[in-house]
Amino acid sequence: MTLAQVTRGQRVSIVSIPNETVRAQAIRFGISVGAEVECAEKIPAGPIIICKGKQEIAIGRKLAEKIEVKPA
């Protein structure tokens, strides 16, 4: 399952970020393999908004499709 497939309110753990460039971008936001995040909002044909702690991050749909997750 990818981050783009999560539903609003769902908590997931990051399993894999295969693309090196995507991984570097995610680390800048404090997201790495093993991190638990919650889907705060899923905008139709737009970004996925996730929460990690008190931080909200909008991740573009194309980027979210490259991040593999599992239910937490």
TrEMBL record:
Keyword field: Iron
InterPro entries recorded: Fe-transptr_FeoA-like (IPR007167), FeoA_core_dom (IPR038157), Transcriptional_repressor_C (IPR008988)
Transmembrane segments: none
MF terms (GO), sorted A to Z: transition metal ion binding
Pfam families recorded: FeoA
Highest taxon above the source species: Bacteria
All copies of domain Ferrous iron transporter FeoA-like, residue ranges: 1-71
Name recorded for this polypeptide: FeoA family protein
Cross-referenced SMART domains: FeoA
